[in-house]
Amino acid sequence: MAEQAVGGTVGGTVGNWGRWGEEDERGALNLIEPKGVLAAAHEVRTGQAYALGLPIQREGAPIFEYRGAPQRLTLTSQTDNQFEDFPGGKEVGANEDVLVIASHSITHMDALCHVQHRGRFYNGFDANTFRSHTGAGRCGIEKLGAFAVRAVLLDLPAYKGVDFLEPGYTVTRADLEGCAEAQGVEVRAGDALLLRTGHLDNFRAETAAGREVPFAQAGIGLDAVSFVRDHDIALVGADNSAIEVIPFDNETFLSVHIALLVESGVPLLEHLWLTDLARGMADAGTYACLLTVTPLPVTGATGSPINPVAIV
Ligand code: UVW
After folding, report:
1. CA-268 nearest atom, ligand 1
2. Beta strands 288-293 and 309-311, pairing class
3. Whose CA is nearest to atom 8 of ligand 1?
4. Which of 53, 84, 100 is where one domain is finished?
5. What is the DSSP string of 156-171?
6. I need a labelling partner for 245 at 20 to 30 A (CA). Which of 6, 26, 64, 251 fits?
7. Do 112 and 121 touch, CB atoms closer than 8 A?
8. Is 241 in the pocket of ligand 1 (CB under 6 A)?
9. Is residue 16 in contact with ligand 1, taking CB distance under 6 Å?
10. 88 and 156, same structural domain?
11. Which of 114, 240, 258 should be mutated for ligand 1, with most atoms under 8 A from CB?
């Protein structure tokens, strides 16, 4: 199993491979323990809940062209004649939708089968266990389940005194350490790490002004992966498209995805709306909260739309 890894080998194995057993498909989510969730519940100060999912709509949302815009299609409408034959007659009708959305569009969670490196998924599973017809035989999104976790938000633009980090800026380990220290928040094993870069604020401003949003984005580089590993972070979320800096660090396509998803088994949450949460946390004087995440348990899926809820 141990090969030269993008993020560097740990303990002679690749990242967390084998750490939770040879058959494990949940990766670093194994680090979330009930006692940590209980401690997070005790940290709740205001009871204010913040939904972190963006609206699912065709326009004004960050959508990659190859994934296509999400579609809400009407399946039945109250005006359809078919309802006249039903017991309610003409007095009752019903409306229903069909939803068509790429599992990695808008706010979503990456399963551990999302990315393979040199033919392997997390824990060394053969990438050929993913088949076009059936999807993921190993590490599908349904293996991650729904969970609650203590989460720490690092508000990087606030730390650096800017509205948003410049597109293409590489967030370093020193940035994460400096921001956590300035915010006075302790990062604990089993936490979710939420990173605000300001990307979505910039996206919204540029879109509203009718300007093209640059493909380059601020995000973490490989150096910051050691922060995640050393703190035993269970999952990482951010307000950008891929957690990682674009153009990719080390000139390697998806280098941080490889280091986190494949090598470390750390699931990712992308396109989180963190700005309201950041304001609420600053007002409450805390940067730790209780976070719930409920990916849709779609068997064999590589990811899922999510609408996580943070309670401050
Ligand atoms: C890729 O970066 C390919 O996908 P995602 O944004 O879902 O991680």
Report:
1. 8
2. antiparallel
3. 242
4. 100
5. HHHHHTSSSPPTT-EE
6. 26
7. yes
8. yes
9. no
10. no
11. 114
The residues near 247 (Cβ < 8 Å, ≥ 6 apart) are: 168, 216
Asked if residue 218 belongs to a domain, the reply is yes
CATH number of the domain that residue 171 is part of: 3.50.30.50
DSSP state of 190: T
* 215 and 230 share one domain: yes
Strand-pairing partners, residue 99, are 72
Q: Is 242 in the pocket of ligand 1 (CB under 6 A)?
A: yes
Within a domain: 52? yes
> What residues pair up with 234 in beta bridges, in sequence order?
none
How many Å apart are CA 285 and CA 281, to the nearest integer? 6
> For residue 15, is it within any domain?
no
Does residue 200 sit within a domain? yes
Same domain, 151 and 286: yes
Q: Which two tokens stand for residue 102?
A: 């790429």
Q: Are residues 78 and 150 in the same domain?
A: no
User: What range does the domain containing 153 cover?
Assistant: 27-64+105-311
pLDDT in tens, the chain (312 residues): 344 456 555 444 578 999 999 999 999 999 999 999 999 999 899 999 999 999 999 988 898 889 999 999 999 998 887 777 777 777 888 899 999 999 999 999 999 999 999 999 999 999 999 999 999 999 999 999 999 999 999 999 999 999 999 999 999 999 999 999 999 999 999 999 999 999 999 999 999 999 999 899 999 999 999 999 999 999 999 999 999 999 999 999 999 999 999 999 999 999 999 999 999 999 999 999 999 999 999 999 999 999 999 999
